[in-house]
Amino acid sequence: MKIGIVAIQGDYQAHAKVLERLGVSYTFVRIPADLAGLAGVILPGGESTTHLKVMTEEGLFDALKKFAAADGAFFGTCAGAILLAKEVHGPAQASLGLLNASVLRNGYGRQLASDVHMGQTKLRAQPLEMVFIRAPIIESVGANVEILADDAGHPVLVREGKILAATFHPELSDDTAVHDYFVRMARNGSAVAR
Asked: Which of 57, 99, 119, 149 shows a CA-CA span of 20 to 30 A to 177?
């Protein structure tokens, strides 16, 4: 099994290091051909409009939608979560529309403050370190979206089928729990052993 990491901007190298620690094969994704043979794709943080612009120019935007339609798994962190959401505002922008959630991306003012929190998740009994960097806010989720963790009254880790989204940066923590969950999700489909 191989996981792709969209390598346009953001700390995609940090995601690669986590996958290495888990013993998972990966490749960097920059063009549609890079998606061949992958079980899942990680959309890292960065600036969502820049991701969107480059993905569109390279034909990757449509290729990612086709990958999702072919049952490929996705994990978006911070800007990646924005790109996965069906509704994006503050200001509005296009997205892949794969996750039934409404996300407020508002550049600076209303985003969660940059900070590190410890919080409970449905992934395990022990608290999880959550590194927030000008995080977007998931304002609402659809009925089929499971909230795996919340912080300050907002969902911060959610899942719908083979789509996982975090408004924080698990790749910046020594804790591999979220990536491990995604890898198992990509490998096993929507039924993940807990």
From this structure: 99
